[in-house]
Amino acid sequence: MEPQKRTVEEELKDLFHAFKDKEVVNEPWNYKMWDIEQKYFFFENDNLIAGPLSSRTPPVQLMAVISNNNLNSLKWPIFMGLTDKTKTLKCLKSTTGDPQLQIEECNIMDLYKDTKELREFTFHGVIQSKTTCSFESAEFPGWFLSTSIHPNMPVGLCKLGGTRIILFHSVKIRSPPK
């Protein structure tokens, strides 16, 4: 019998419960993430892209996730970065004035231990169904982490109502015992 899949809400509750005490946390949790069109995250040429799995794709980029305990936990504020923990997702204004997604050289654990709100590095987990979630920028409300409808394009930010995809699945990857 296959184990019952956990809901997005159950996973978020566990994450926030596990990371409530900054003194005992050493590592973020790792997640495999993909959009509702089955495009997974890959890191290539300093870009986070979303594409389908194939024999020619690089390894799936797991995302490091940890709670931001300096913002209202009812909105599920999280930091997200690459699993090497030295690159973190950040939202900032582009030269055109619209928000854009950037990968910042920044240790996710330093963000977690900081006492500032760090909204530019924070996404609110917005539960959309039992199995899907959207990630809204805390710095730019109404802007969401998104993928293109076309494969192998950069992950970015968008407002609701366009053609970009903002619904994601994720599964926690259990760390091997140390």
TrEMBL record:
User: What keywords does the record list, in alphabetical order?
Assistant: Secreted
Q: Pfam families this protein is in? A: IL1
PANTHER family, sorted: INTERLEUKIN-1 FAMILY MEMBER, INTERLEUKIN-1 RECEPTOR ANTAGONIST PROTEIN
Q: Per the annotation, which location comes first and is thus the protein's main one?
A: secreted
Q: What's a Gene Ontology MF term here? A: cytokine activity
Protein name per UniProt: Interleukin-1
Q: Which family does it belong to?
A: Belongs to the IL-1 family.
Q: Where in the cell is it found?
A: Secreted
Q: Which gene encodes it?
A: LOC106557323
Give the domain of life.
Answer: Eukaryota
Record's GO cellular component, any one?
extracellular space
Q: Which Gene Ontology biological process is one annotated for this entry?
A: cellular response to lipopolysaccharide
